[in-house]
Sequence to fold (65 residues):
Amino acid sequence: MDKKLLDILACPVCKSPLNLGPDKRELICRADRLAFPIRDDIPIMLESEARSMSSEELDAGSPAS
Fold:
């Protein structure tokens, strides 16, 4: 994912910054504990497409904001 694009993207739910997941296939909102998928290098920024994350997942794999 392009760094410039990542810098301007925000969570569509709460407008918090997003972090690139450890596998580089998801954008993670720590505030809402949501992971938005990236398909064919396109972030899918729909709440209905996001998956919920557990606290353990957030603590284990994603970078701190």
Observations:
- Strands lie at 19-20, 26-29, 34-39, 42-43, 51-52.
